[in-house]
Amino acid sequence: MEINYDSLPKHTSHENEHLQKPGIPGSDLLALLNVADRLTVAYLIFSTALIAVCRHRIKHWEDLLPAHFGLMIIIASLAYARSRGVRILGLISHWYPPFLFLFFFEEVALTVHAIFSGWFDEYLIAADLALFGVHPTVWIEQFSSYWLNEYMQLVYTSYFLLTVGFGAYLWLRGRREEFAVFMASTCTAYYLSYLVFVLFPCESPYHTLRNLQHVDLTGGPFTGFINLIEKHGRVHGGAFPSTHVAGAMTVLFSAYRFARPLGYWLTALVFSICVSTVYGRYHYVVDVFAGILMAALGCWIGNHLTKRE
Length: 309
Description:
Elements: H1 13-20, H2 27-32, H3 35-53, H4 61-83, H5 87-95, H6 97-111, H7 121-132, H8 136-139, H9 146-157, H10 159-172, H11 176-199, H12 205-208, H13 221-233, H14 243-258, H15 260-279, H16 285-308
Helix pairs in contact: 3-4, 3-11, 4-5, 6-11, 9-13, 9-15, 10-11, 10-14, 11-14, 11-16, 14-15, 14-16
């Protein structure tokens, strides 16, 4: 018997599409996450597991756990909205990581002793002394002055705006691939730093060398503003490595790669940020070296991951 294939019912293209796309749970949703999303979710999974396992040593763990699960749901929802072309949510999905850094850093004050109960500053103090023969934060106070204090505190606060500003520079020029590499690099540098905070908790010279400081860093509005923030919102812990340096150096490395003339202009500012972390007694010099290392690793890993993507 001969079959007339032309007489058989055919699916329309719309029906075929419906048959081939069952939905987006599971692995399909994971495929919607970009590199920065996956890095952020990976850090959230790590920190959530840490809080759950070490909850007896973490204050307010019962608030942190649902907050972490909520953030993971939000990231997945933003990724889905991005895939569906929802303009505002899609824009937010590319730009949320820098603002999450602030939450994660503040969280360090609660999780810094999840594994180790003490501080490891003695090793950093010994390293600074071995390298320079003095305590750098104490030695540098001899140069303190009204205007230098103002300048140092101003550049110290600029590191976050530097990250957002360079990201905007790439974004507004339509350089989406470079933006993705930069964001993945920044996420990697910060999340590696947060990991070290827990594995190697340190206080900072502000706490450990306070009795050796003889000069108050007084100044004008910028100094007063920073002193007010530090008085009411200082995070105890999270000194090694310096995330100010890690974030600023990631911008500088990325600028030299994607916009070299801009990198030349940013060099002095980023160098000033590195100095300000020691001048303001926030970090040891070895914290600065570690921050540079985090930035280098972040750029290398971020570039590698986005290439694979």
